[in-house]
Structures are given as C-alpha cells and as structure tokens.
Amino acid sequence: MKNRLTARLQAGAPLVMGILNVTPDSFSDGGYFTAKNAALAHAQKMVADGAEIIDVGGESTRPGAQAVSIDEELERTIPVISMLHDDLDVMISIDTSKPEVMKAAVETGACLINDVRALRDPGAIEMAAQLDVPVCLMHMQGEPRTMQAKPHYNDVVSEVKTFLSDRMQACRNAGIKDEYIMIDPGFGFGKNLEHNLKLFKELESLHQLNAPVLVGVSRKSMISMLLDCPVEERMPASIAMAGLAIWLGAKILRVHDVKETVDAVRMIHAIKTV
C-alpha cells in the first residue's frame, strides 16, 4: 500500500484528494463529519465521485482555531481511518503534525503523511522516516492560530521555494526517499491575497525542486477576498483555480468538491496531453 501513491503519481495523470475533516471547527465543513457513519458516507461519495486519496484531518488549522491534544486527535481520526481502510479501495492520507498520530494512522492504513508544518515538530521527521511512507511538506509562515495577522515577504515565491528546498533536504538527511517527498506551497497559510496570487501565478517555478506539487485552494478565503462570497458559494472559483493549477503542473489537488474537480481535471489533462 505504501508504494501505491508514488506508482500512481508516476503514471502521469493528476490526482484528486478529497478532504475529510473530522473536526467541529474547520472553516468549510467543521462539524459535518464528526460522527463516524457520516464520515464514512462522505468518503464513500467522494470515492464514487473519483477521489483517489482521502485526506483525514482531526485538527483544524484555520486562523484562530484551538489546539487539539494528541489523545483527542487520535480519537477523532484513527477509527475513521480504520473504517475507510476496511471498506474502501482508496489511498488514505493523514493530515497531522503530531508524530504519535502519524504512527497510529499509518499502522491503521494511511499511506501518506500530509503535514502543514513540514515535519518541523519535535520527532515528526524521525517518525516519518521510520514509517517509510510518502510525505507532503507544506509551507506556512507563522502558526495557524496567528498566521494571518501580518504576513510579510520580500519575495514570496523565492522564500517559499527556499523553505521547501530546505525541508526536502532535511527529509533526505533523515533517510526519507526522494520519491516519497511531495510539496505544497501552502496557499492561505501565512499569506495575504497578493502573496497567494503571486505564488499561484508562479506555480510552475516550484517544479525546479523536482517533487510532485500538491495544491489546496478549495473554498479558501482568497476567493472571498476577490469575489465577496461566502464559503458555500466558492465552488465555481475553486474549480477554476483547480483547473489552472493542473495546467501549471500540479499533480495533486486537495478539494471539497470532488466530482466537479475530477471532471475539470480530466478535461484539462486530455487537452494538455493530446
């Protein structure tokens, strides 16, 4: 199972990752899937709609969200991962920064560690190396609770690239295989609208790091800043940005609206590879 993701990425076509937040306070779907049966039903729908990865998260990283203990995060995520592993033919990602949660999730069936802190928490990079599964390293300036207060960059593209390059090297030094390393520029994480737009426009420059790029812009506040729309009305813009991300070379899209994104990805990939 642990090599399934890298093999699938090498096949060429982009992947859609469905978001499954088992939290009470995530910005878009907090509280919807905290019950295990509701989480399973939503995952089943996303798989039927074409998601090849389900990303399970037990701690909200929206600005101002409260921190969650290890025990609480384990209680939220591990039973859900167990159900998904038993009931669905889908790759499972664990969205966490805690080494204890990484270990339990992989032992239960997760095949990807998706960490907004890029394995910087104590023990995280060592645990990821020990578990020997792919990792996704995300850029974030500051901490989730305060990251949007006053983000500042002299050159957002250059600084994000440098950070990700450094974290990739740290992973190699820890014994994580090159082919197991993916990167995420972290749209909305310690970045204002101008930073996000500039980073998106220059997305292709991240390919210089020779790692698959994951993009997560689904329903994010940058859309509202431009279009002045609530979360439930952000799908069309999310799909547009997902399509553009694919055109610019993204390999994984992390999304809420799976079916619509899958349709867009298939059309754009067909045109791009004709």
Radius of gyration: 17 Å
The best one-word shape is globular
Strand content: 5-15%
Poorly predicted spans: 26-31
Distance between the termini: 31 Å
Count up the helices: 10
- The top-level CATH class is Alpha Beta
Number of domains in the coordinates? 1
CATH architecture: Alpha-Beta Barrel
The secondary structure category is alpha/beta
Question: Mean pLDDT score, rounded?
Answer: 92
Number of E strands = 8
> How would you name the CATH homologous superfamily?
Dihydropteroate synthase-like
- Element pattern in H and E: HEHEHEHEHEHEHEHHEH
Helix residue percentage: 40-55%
* Strand arrangement across the biggest beta sheet: 6-5-4-3-2-1-8-7
Largest sheet: 8 strands, parallel
CATH topology: TIM Barrel
Structural notes for this entry:
It is a single chain. This protein is α/β, with parallel strands linked by helices and 274 residues long. The chain has a single domain (4-8, 15-272), classed as Dihydropteroate synthase-like (TIM Barrel, Alpha-Beta Barrel), CATH 3.20.20.20. Strands 6-5-4-3-2-1-8-7 form an 8-stranded parallel β-sheet, sandwiched between helices. The model is unreliable at 26-31 (pLDDT under 50). The protein is built from 10 helices and 8 strands.
Q: Which descriptors would you attach to this protein?
A:
274 residues, alpha/beta, TIM Barrel, eight-stranded parallel beta sheet, 10 helices, 43% helix, 13% strand
Question: Any chance you could write out the topology, listing elements then pairs?
Answer:
Elements: H1 4-10, E1 15-21, H2 36-48, E2 53-57, H3 70-87, E3 91-95, H4 99-108, E4 112-115, H5 124-131, E5 135-138, H6 156-174, E6 181-184, H7 193-201, E7 214-215, H8 221-227, H9 235-247, E8 252-255, H10 258-272
Parallel strand pairs: 1-2, 1-8, 2-3, 3-4, 4-5, 5-6, 7-8
Helix pairs in contact: 2-3, 3-4, 4-5, 9-10
